[in-house]
Write a structure and sequence with these properties.
alpha+beta, Methionyl-tRNA Fmet Formyltransferase, Chain A, domain 2, 2 domains, 7-stranded mixed β-sheet, 7-stranded antiparallel β-sheet, 8 helices
């Protein structure tokens, strides 16, 4: 081992972590082991499937550890045998105990998918979209035992696009995270990587999401509902009720309401204003989507997924499920 090539243990699990591991391997970093979550049942058949990080690690011929528990002395001793100088973490999925964080001489550093101290927690990508942020990014941080409270080593920002979903943003942030980690390692070698404390007064939380978070309140403004739909795409998904059954909603477009001229809408069609209709009323169901009255402005929903079915363009859905104008969603 040389000072320029520390022995690294990588810890990560989902697809989001793959670009960071890939960047480490492409740069010839000395990754001595990979720690990931155990294989879990997936799909309709509930067959055991390996995490994406495990797949890449095995292809690279790296030792893979998949402990059920990480807080015991046995796992600590297992890691100690690899003599790590540094632990790199990207979306591992568990809170690390202090004795593990402190094991390597250079500490444990993490790729977090927000510009800390904003959006500490399990779902920073989703909450940044849900709350209508125009920018997000990644933070390389020195881990401690708090919830994403460690010192900031490096940040890299990027804009959130107008129709960005949690899925598309996660893909872009994952690539950015890999690049940011390599920049951080280069600065570490040069002795230029400096830590700064987070300002806790600016901290916001990004708690875990569940399926019920996706229930639409049509009395909210269209812009807020659109952000919710995009932020929960693909999981857990945003939904309303149609004829007593859940209908998931995707691909929203806000249609601005101008009191003088009516709603601003792409294309030649004009639409009646929503003032005289309750929130959740479908003003039109057509090839371009479901145009729905909200608490402010209208929302065009262009893709749906019926309960027990697959995700469809609204035009395709309507062929087998015609919807009359005036239908009320959410009851």
């Amino acid at each position: 081992m040389t000072p320029d090539q520390p022995r690294i243990i990588f810890m990560g699990t989902p697809e989001f972590a793959v670009p960071t591991l890939s960047a480490l391997l492409a740069a010839g970093e000395r990754v001595v082991a990979v720690v990931t979550q155990p294989d879990r049942p997936r799909g309709r058949g509930k067959k055991l499937a390996p995490p994406p990080v495990k797949v890449m690690a095995l292809e690279a011929g790296l030792p893979v550890l998949q402990p059920e528990k990480i807080r015991g002395a046995d796992f600590l001793e297992t890691l100690r045998q690899f003599e790590p100088d540094l632990i790199v973490v990207t979306a591992y999925g568990r809170i690390l105990p202090g004795h593990l964080i402190d094991l390597p001489r250079l500490g444990t550093i993490n790729v977090h998918a927000s510009l800390l101290p904003k959006y500490r927690g399990a779902a920073p990508i989703q909450w940044a979209i849900i709350r209508g942020e125009s920018e997000t990014g990644v933070t390389i941080m020195q881990m401690d035992e708090g919830l994403d409270t460690g010192d900031i080593l490096l940040t890299a920002g990027m804009p959130i696009e107008a129709e960005e979903t949690a899925a598309t943003l996660a893909t872009r942030l994952a690539e950015l995270g890999g690049r940011a980690m390599m920049e951080a390692l280069q600065l570490l070698r040069q002795g230029l990587l400096t830590a700064r404390k987070q300002d806790d007064r600016l901290a916001t939380l990004a708690p875990p999401l569940n399926k019920e978070d996706g229930l639409v309140d049509w009395s909210a403004p269209a812009e807020r509902i659109g952000c919710l739909i995009r932020g929960l795409d693909p999981w857990p998904g945003t939904y309303t009720c149609l004829a007593g059954r859940r209908l998931k909603l995707f691909a929203p477009l806000v249609v601005r309401e101008d009191a003088a001229a009516g709603p601003t809408m792409p294309g030649p069609a004009s639409f009646p204003g929503p003032a005289s209709f309750p929130a959740g009323t479908i003003r039109r169901a057509g090839a371009d989507g479901l145009l729905v009255v909200t608490g402010r402005d209208l929302l065009l929903v262009r893709q749906v997924q019926p309960e027990g079915g697959r995700r469809l363009e609204v035009e395709t859905f309507l062929r087998g499920h015609p919807i009359a104008a005036g239908t009320l969603l959410g009851t």
